[in-house]
Every structure is written in C-alpha cells, then in structure tokens.
Specification:
By secondary structure, this protein is of the alpha/beta class. 39% of the residues lie in helices and 18% in strands. It folds into 2 domains: 8-133 and 279-343, Periplasmic binding protein-like II (D-Maltodextrin-Binding Protein, domain 2, 3-Layer(aba) Sandwich), CATH 3.40.190.10; 136-278, D-Maltodextrin-Binding Protein, domain 2. α1 (8-19) packs antiparallel against α2 (23-38). The longest helix is centred in the N-terminal third of the chain and has 16 residues, at 23-38. Pfam families: NMT1_3. This is TRAP transporter TAXI family solute receptor.
C-alpha cells in the first residue's frame, strides 16, 4: 500500500500556529488535507466487519463506498464478511485489515496495557476513529415449545437445551460463555445436562430452528438485527432478558453496560427486558497514514445523515457522543482523525 508522505496533522498544526483563531484557517487546512489525498496514489483498504447477515456487515456495505469516494482515484475498500468484535482487533493488529468495526469494551481490552481478560497482551496497532454507533444487546432467543423462559433455565441441570452460537472470534459468542458463567454454568454444563452447543454461520441459524433441531440462540444484537428478526418470524420464539442482578453485576465487571431492551423491539416482545450491552465503534490501523485516516473520518462524518439508510440501528447516532474516549474503549485516536475533527471544530 502506498501512502503520501505529507502529514495532514503536522500541516494543520503548523497552519494553526501561524494563524490561530482565524476562521479561514480551518477551511484552508481542510482543502490542503483533501488535496493531498486526492492527488496521492490509490490505496486498497480492507474493512473488517462480521459474517453476512450481521448488522456490522450491513454497516460496512454502506460505509465502505462512502469511504472509497473520499480516497484517491483507483482506490478500493473491500468489506470483509468475517470475524467480529474480538477477531477484528487481531486482524488490525496483524495487518490483515486497515479498518474495522469493534465493540467499545473489547476495543478497550485490546488497547489496555495487559490486553484485559480477552487478549494475551496489548494490541498496540488499534486506533480510534468514532464510537457510540449504536446499542447492542446481549440477548437470548428461545423457542416457546422448549419451555425456556430465563437464563436460569438455560443454565439448569434439569433442562435439555440445544443451543446455537456464532463462530468464535466475535463478541457475541464470547458473551454467551460469559453469561453462562455468570449463571453458574458453561458450554460443558449445557452438554452434561443432555443438551448441545453448536456454532453456526448466521445464514444457517434460522434453518436450524425451522427444522426443529435447535431451542436457543444467543448473540449480541441490535434492534432490527437481521438474524434475530428472521428467527422471530420462522418460528414461535421469546426474547430472554437477564433478571439476576448478581449476574448483571458480574457481566458489568467484564466491561458490559446495563441496558434495557425496549418493549416491541422484536415481534411478540411486549415488555421491557433488562440486559447488558455494548456499543460499536470504528477503529483503524496505526500504520495508516494521517492523510488516509483524515479521508476516512471525513467520509464517515459527511455520511452521518445516511447512517439510518445503512441500518436502522444507526438511527440514533450522535456525533458529539461519538468522540467521547469512553465509547471508543479509551483507545488513542488516530492523528488523522484528530486532524479532521479539529478542522471541523469538533475536537480541541
């Protein structure tokens, strides 16, 4: 990948030091930065999202073309339908993706000095661009015929639960292990009670319920999440909340946030449900040039009005909240993103 040599950040800061406070300064700096990208060599970027059928993949399908439109002619943004909240951090760290969607709490672990509970050390290539894209809920979905009405039922020695999860590498699957542990069980516990645990691709999940070979699916979902919405239509299902305060407290200690899934979020869900959740963020590789990340950030900010068209879960996005360090996992912002936000008057 070729990157132009001019540093947008240093250009902007030199300009501000020469003419601080002049309104025209912001406009000229932005023009200089944009021109440096427009006349640079093409770049190929890989945008890590999640499997086809997941909300993040839909985000990438909308954001990818918007980003590509701000890059030099001939550039490409390939949306990768793989991995997830945990795996995406590894893809960025290992140089296998330049842009990724993350969850704030797993990004926070990745950026921490010791890697938190999920990683075996700091992922020092991960840089923040914007957070608080949405709210994801750590939810369970059970068939009515199974008689499962709570997480206590899923964790019970007396229930035979045929459980479906997503593939490892995503935060949803990690969350399933954590929520079972918070209720005193595990995958092995589910199996020892006569049940089963299978990891399926999202595209195959609904079929497992339609043919009667599954009772329960758990994942991190948004309102209008494609797979969850399909499940609620292919068979008679209920959404499972977390009613054990001690379990919620334990999950909060792992980085989750207490949330409430509003009544009516899914078909047949007629009451508010307590859960834990997290929010999505955009991260990039520290190896990307300032100019390229400036262009990425500009593209995202200028596409905010179209976010709800990308996915309904993005309809509540608030740009001012999105720059708070906490919703970005306290990961360091990429200098190119900082340069754009300063130009736009959004960051000091």
């Amino acid at each position: 990948m070729n990157h132009a040599s001019l540093s947008v950040r240093s250009t902007v800061e030199r300009f501000f030091s020469a003419s601080r406070g002049a309104c025209i300064g912001i406009g000229v700096a932005a023009v200089v930065a944009h021109a440096s990208v427009a006349h640079a060599d093409p770049v190929d970027l890989r945008f890590a999202t999640v499997g086809i059928g997941g909300s993040w993949y839909a985000y990438g399908q909308g954001m990818g073309p918007a980003i590509q439109s701000q890059l030099p002619a001939g550039s490409r943004v390939d949306v990768l339908p793989i991995s997830g909240g945990v795996g995406n951090m590894e893809l960025v760290q290992n140089g296998e993706a330049e842009i990724a969607i993350a969850f704030s709490h797993t990004a926070g672990e990745a950026c921490s000095e010791d890697g938190g509970l999920t990683f075996d050390g700091q992922r020092d290539k991960v840089r923040a661009v914007m957070g608080a894209l949405d709210t994801f809920y750590l939810a369970g979905f059970a068939t009515v015929r199974s008689g499962i009405e709570s997480w206590e039922d899923v964790a019970s020695d007396d229930k035979r639960v045929r459980m479906i999860t997503t593939q490892r590498g995503g935060t949803g699957e990690l969350g399933m292990r954590q929520i079972l542990e918070a209720h005193g069980s595990s995958y092995d516990g589910v199996r020892s009670a006569g049940g089963s645990v299978r990891a399926l691709e999202r595209a195959a999940t609904a079929a497992a319920f339609a043919d009667g070979s599954a009772d329960f699916w758990g994942h991190t979902v948004t309102v209008a999440h494609p797979v969850a919405t399909e499940l609620m239509t292919v068979t008679d299902m209920r959404v499972i909340g977390i009613h054990n305060e001690a379990a919620i407290e334990e999950l909060v200690g792992l980085g989750w946030t207490p949330v409430t899934l509003p009544a009516g979020s899914f078909e047949g869900q007629d009451e508010d449900l307590p859960m834990v959740g997290t929010g999505s963020s955009i991260v990039v590789s520290a190896d990307l040039s300032d100019e390229v990340v400036y262009a990425i950030t500009k593209a995202l900010v200028e596409s905010v009005d179209r976010f709800p068209d990308f996915h309904a879960a993005l309809s509540g996005f608030d740009l001012e909240v999105a720059l708070d360090p906490g919703v970005n996992g306290n990961c360091p912002f990429h200098p190119g993103a900082v340069a754009y936000y300063r130009d736009a008057g959004l960051m000091d």
